[in-house]
Amino acid sequence: MYSNGRPVAPARKHTAPELRARKGSGKTISMVTAYDFTMARLVDEAGVDMVLVGDSLGMVVQGLTNTIPVTLDEICYHGRAVARGLVSAHIVGDLPFMSYQVSASQAVESAGKLMKDGAFESVKLEGGTEVAEHVFRIVRAGIPVVGHVGLTPQSVHALGGFKVQGRGDEAAERLIADAKALEKAGAFAVVLEAIPPDLAARVTQELSIPTIGIGAGPSCDGQVLVCTDLLGMFRGAAPKFAKRYADLGDAVVGAVRAYIDEVQAGTFPGPDHSYKPNAPAATAASAARVHEMPKLDTPPGLDLRH
Ligand code: KIV
């Protein structure tokens, strides 16, 4: 599909109906977050199915302690950059805190803004039964929706921190009811975040739409990770489920240290990274030609001879 990092043939975009139809097919969905064009191109080239422009950008890109201050305009800005880097991956945008909770109408308007200004192909929102009506209305407006239950970071203060959810029979039954309400409302997939693996397995079995787990064990129909966790770029404490597949953070620090050393030693830039010097004869000839040029009426400050 790619040659030298460039697509050589038009790749088929993964669509919401196709991803929904993966349920029971044995083809597990892979999803990662991305927040800019460069990362989007790389994860798309790797062959990921879905890219989420999550409101986690508040923590990863902006350095906030939670996702609450993130705005719709910020999600749209990052969405446009990510969309330009994707050839085949489906792009999902997060509806940020207070852009959909107020009313179903507000939810439809905000989802519409993500699609129009953010170049998204679907939207994701947090919550269960309490947002089912909102999901229904967004879907009816022609916008595919991904649900998100379990640890819902926009409710971090109500939950008392970033904690495992769905522990105990009552909480587990509530979570199953929430996931079913989202399915009934028309969501095409549901993210299950930070719940016990046996509960995730039960939800996955009881739903007819794919579940996409993050900290929800191996039985889900798909998995999602935050790109900077996966790549080992994040310097703070990472959650238990955030497996590192590389140590790019250390690689970046090492590379920049090597650059600083060479700059200080005067060995960068060397001949390989400098343009050819002007040949003395060529310089003299071109200078002579410049002096033969007729005098032009150039605007003040624009002298074409230098
Ligand atoms: O915002 C985000 O990145 C998310 C994922 C962790 C699922 O919601």
Summarize the structure.
By secondary structure, the protein is of the alpha/beta class. It has helices at 16-20, 37-46, 57-60, 72-84, 104-117, 132-140, 156-159, 169-185, 197-206, 227-230, 248-265, 280-292, and strands at 2-3, 6-7, 29-33, 50-53, 90-94, 122-124, 145-150, 189-193, 211-214, 222-225. The strands form two sheets. Strands 3-4-5-6-7-8-9-10 form an eight-stranded parallel beta barrel, surrounded by six helices.
- The radius of gyration over CA amounts to 25 Å
What is the number of independent domains?
Answer: 2
Distance between the termini: 46 Å
Derived from helix and strand composition plus strand pairing, the structural class reads alpha/beta
- Strand/helix succession: EEHEHEHHEHEHEHHEHEEHHH
| CATH-defined fold name of the largest domain | TIM Barrel
The CATH class designation of the largest domain is Alpha Beta
According to CATH, the homologous superfamily of the largest domain is Phosphoenolpyruvate-binding domains
Bound molecules: 3-methyl-2-oxobutanoic acid
Please bin the fraction of helical residues.
25-40%
Unreliable stretches covering 5 or more consecutive residues: none
Biggest beta-sheet profile: 8 strands, parallel, barrel
In DSSP terms, counting alpha (H) and pi (I) runs of 4 or more, how many helices?
12
CATH architecture of the largest domain: Alpha-Beta Barrel
What's the arrangement of strands in the largest beta sheet? 3-4-5-6-7-8-9-10
Indicate the multimeric state.
single chain
Strand fraction band?
A: 5-15%
Anisotropy-based shape: elongated
Tell me how many strands there are.
Answer: 10
**Average residue-wise pLDDT:** 92
